[in-house]
Fold this sequence. Notes:
Layout: E1 8-12, H1 13-26, H2 31-50, E2 59-61, E3 73-81, E4 91-99, E5 104-112, H3 122-135, E6 138-140, H4 154-165
Parallel strand pairs: 1-5
Antiparallel strand pairs: 1-6, 2-3, 3-4, 4-5
Amino acid sequence: MNESEQFHIKLSKNFDKTQQKLIRDHYRKNQVGLVKFVELIQKFLRILSVDPRPRPPLGHLEPWPKGCSREGLEFWKLEFKMPQLRGAAEQGRLIYLLNLTKKEVVLIWIYTHAEFEKRPPDKNLKHLLLEIMDNYEVSDESNNLADSGDGETVEDKLGENKSNDS
């Protein structure tokens, strides 16, 4: 597949918010885990830009919350292991919308099994999905994926660690 056939990745405001919460709750004091987490998310972005319909066990089509499905859109969930976490928190989830017509993937929510056993409540998902589909409040994929929640990127922190080691 050449670049013109690739899917464009977009981030919802909710994805940014839930990603920062996940980093704050699980990786604030774990630099190695944070770096591995960011690398994992970047790997998923590369995968989704080429193949937004990954096969199980990584990805599967999710049922829409009642009353919000739209023609031409699909609702997907990735299931994966979170780096350096244990128990239910080790089971990561990423929910996204797939727009085949526009060749776009919109990241909606990232969470762990410890937060939600199956997925966030349908009431919350429905409200969020309708807001995103109607207003399309998303941003392009950017370096904010590497932001560790305190305004510094992972690369900034790694640079600090290098200077502290010398």
